[in-house]
What we know:
Layout lengths: L5 E3 L6 E3 L6 E3 L23 E3 L1 H12 L10
Zinc ion (ZN) binds next to loops.
Amino acid sequence: MRDTRKVPCYFCGDLVKIGEIGAYRKVSGWAQVREQGGSNSLAFMSTPEAWAHASCIDREKQVKSGRFKQEETLF
Ligand SMILES: [Zn+2]
């Protein structure tokens, strides 16, 4: 059964529906070093520590990569 609770988004503070397709959850886990690098599935994933909207994650990725133009957003 899907979890239908809502929690504040880690980045914007608006509510995120837990378990909604596309939502992001922040977890800790163990990733194995692989020859080809990149991300792997995690072993012993923790229960989610935080949740975020897909759009907020996308924005953060752009901020981190330096491609984000510092424009005022609507919120
Ligand atoms: Zn958000």
